[in-house]
Specification:
This protein has 357 residues and is an alpha+beta fold. The protein is 15% helix and 47% strand. Strands 4, 5, 6, 7, 8, 9, 10, 11 and 12 form a 9-stranded antiparallel β-sheet that branches. It has an 8-stranded antiparallel beta barrel with strand order 14-15-16-17-18-20-21-22. Strands 1-13-3-2 form a 4-stranded antiparallel β-sheet.
C-alpha cells in the first residue's frame, strides 16, 4: 500500500484518524461522511446535495497503463469527462512522482441545467496500471472534501496484472460469442431509447472569470430534438445573445428511423427567421425577416451514455457539419460529434407569437 500526496495546494488537511477506510479495485480511501454512495461495476461514487449546490467524488476502475502518465491522463480525461460534457477553460498540472507512482490532474468547467460545474480528474500511473479519481462540484467549499479524500488515498496494484492476464485469456476464448451478444443487445436498446426530448442548452459568457468561474450574461443558445414514438421529430434552435442584434429561431419537422446504431433524420418542413428583441430575454419582439433554412437529410452514427448522476446523453456522429447541429465542437481530427442531454422537465424553448407548429 502506498500513500500518495500530490498538488500540495490540494492536500491541506486530513479526515478524522478514526474514520474507517473502504476499498474499490486498487484504491483504498476514507469516504466523505454523510454522502450518498453509489456502486457500479466500473466505478464507485459519493455525492451530496445541499439545496441548489451539489458535489460528487468517484473512483474509477483501474486499467492497463500505456506507460506514459500524460497519455493515461489524456485518455481518462476523454473517456470519463469529455465524452459526457462540453468543458470550457481546460487546464492541467505537470506530472509529479511519489514512491513509484506518477500523478497529474486535468480540470475545467461545464454546464448542467444552467449551472457552472467545476470538474477535476486526477490520474495515477505506475507504468503498468493507471486509475483515476473524479471530482465535480458547484461550490468552492466542496473542494475541501476532495482535499481530504486525496490526502488519504492508498494504492495497491500488486494483484492487478495477474487479474488482467486471466481476464485477457478469458476474453480471447469468448471473443466471438461476446461480440455477437453485444451487437444484439445494443441494437435492441438503442432502437427504443431515442424517443424523448434531447437538448443542448448553453449560457452566454462575458469572457471574464471570477475565482476561476466564468461570468454569464442574460443570453443563451438552445437547440433540441424531440423524437416521438410515431417516428416523427421536431427540431428547434433559439439564439438570444447579447452580442447579436436580433433573436434567431429555427424550426424543422420530419421523420426519423433507427437501424442498429444508425439514426436517419429526414426533414419535411423547415423555416427560420429573425425577431426583434425586447427589454427581456424571455420575450419576443416583432418578426424582422425570414432566413434561408435548408432542411438536410442526415444519417448519424449514435451512441447513448447513461450516467446515474448526470442522466442520459445521445452522441450524434457525422462525417461533416450539418445545418441543424452546426460545425466542429470536438477535437479537430475527430469526426463531427454533437451531444444532447435527455431532458425530463420539458422544453425551455418557446415559439414566437403566432408561430404555427
Amino acid at each position: 500500500m502506498k500513500k500518495l500526496f500530490f498538488l500540495a495546494s490540494l492536500v491541506t488537511g486530513a479526515m478524522a484518524v478514526n474514520a474507517q477506510k473502504e476499498s474499490f479495485d486498487i484504491v483504498s480511501y476514507i469516504p466523505p461522511q454523510g454522502w450518498n454512495k453509489d456502486s457500479k461495476e466500473d466505478y464507485v461514487s459519493y455525492s451530496r446535495i445541499d439545496g441548489a449546490s451539489w458535489s460528487q467524488i468517484a473512483v474509477y476502475k483501474s486499467r492497463q497503463s500505456s506507460g506514459s502518465i500524460e497519455d493515461d491522463a489524456q485518455k481518462d480525461w476523454e473517456d470519463i469527462v469529455l465524452k459526457s460534457h462540453t468543458v470550457e477553460q481546460e487546464d492541467k498540472t505537470q506530472p509529479q512522482s511519489a514512491e513509484g507512482w506518477q500523478v497529474m490532474s486535468r480540470g475545467g468547467v461545464w454546464q448542467y441545467n444552467g449551472a457552472n460545474v467545476a470538474t477535476l480528474l486526477t490520474t495515477y500511473s505506475n507504468g503498468n496500471v493507471c486509475v483515476s479519481v473524479l471530482w465535480n462540484g458547484t461550490a468552492k467549499p466542496y473542494m475541501q472534501n476532495l482535499k481530504d479524500f486525496i490526502a488519504n488515498i492508498d494504492l495497491d496494484a500488486s494483484t492487478v496484472l495477474a487479474d488482467q492476464n486471466v481476464m485477457n485469456n478469458s476474453e480471447q476464448n469468448n471473443n466471438t460469442q461476446t461480440a455477437d451478444n453485444n451487437t444484439t443487445t445494443n441494437a435492441t436498446e438503442t432502437a427504443s431509447s431515442v424517443v424523448g426530448l434531447w437538448t443542448d442548452y448553453i449560457l452566454e459568457t462575458t469572457g471574464y472569470y471570477i475565482n476561476g468561474m466564468p461570468q454569464y450574461t442574460a443570453g443563451y443558445l438552445r437547440k433540441e430534438y424531440a423524437f416521438y414514438p410515431d417516428g416523427t421529430y421536431i427540431f428547434r434552435n433559439k439564439q438570444w445573445l447579447t452580442k447579436t442584434k436580433d433573436i434567431l429561431f429555427i424550426y424543422e419537422t420530419g421523420t426519423y428511423t433507427v437501424t442498429g446504431n444508425q439514426l436517419t433524420i429526414t426533414p419535411k418542413n423547415g423555416k427560420s427567421g429573425f425577431w426583434q428583441k425586447t427589454a427581456s430575454s424571455k420575450e419576443w419582439g416583432k418578426q424582422l425577416k425570414t432566413a434561408n433554412h435548408k432542411p438536410e437529410k442526415i444519417t448519424y452514427t449514435f451512441t447513448l451514455e447513461k450516467d446515474p448522476t448526470y442522466g442520459t446523453k445521445i452522441i450524434l456522429t457525422s462525417s461533416k457539419p450539418t445545418e441543424r447541429d452546426g460545425g466542429k465542437f470536438n477535437a479537430p481530427n475527430d469526426p463531427f460529434e454533437f451531444r444532447y442531454s435527455l431532458r425530463e422537465n420539458g422544453s425551455s424553448i418557446d415559439n414566437p407569437p403566432g408561430f404555427e407548429k
